[in-house]
Design a protein that fits this description.
The protein has a two-stranded antiparallel sheet. Helix 1 packs across helix 2 and helix 1 runs antiparallel to helix 3. With 118 residues, it is mainly alpha-helical. 67% of the residues lie in helices and 5% in strands.
């Protein structure tokens, strides 16, 4: 039986789709946060307030890593860019773990090992 017809293939595929969907949403929220801060958006406006409130828990672990660059009301939040990179790397790592659990046949494994040995 090849790995494409394995019973674990569809759940692995769905799992990777879910991970990429969640990280996509998170990246969009953080990108909006970054742009709104950069353009000095009114924090009390409904949309800005929503984005800041929802993205805050994800940005918080990174907020003191770098100083924000401020120019006439605009804030270049380096920490939001760092958060986006870290969450993307975490998602990539989770997807790689999913692929490591994929069923492979002995010939497929031997071929991969031969590729890595070169």
């Amino acid at each position: 039986m090849d790995s494409y017809n394995s019973p674990s293939t569809k759940p692995l595929y769905r799992g990777t789709q879910i991970v990429w969907y969640i990280i996509g949403l998170l990246e969009v929220l953080l990108a909006f946060r970054f742009i709104l801060k950069l353009l000095a958006a009114n924090a009390s406006a409904g949309f800005s307030n929503f984005i800041y409130t929802v993205s805050y828990p994800f940005a918080t672990p990174f907020l003191n890593v770098f100083r924000a660059t401020k120019v006439e009301g605009s804030v270049f939040e380096w920490t939001t860019l760092l958060a986006m990179l870290v969450y993307l790397l975490i998602a990539w790592g989770i997807v790689k773990i999913f692929f490591m659990s994929k069923t492979v046949s002995t010939p497929e494994a031997a071929a991969k090992l031969d590729e890595e040995d070169k």
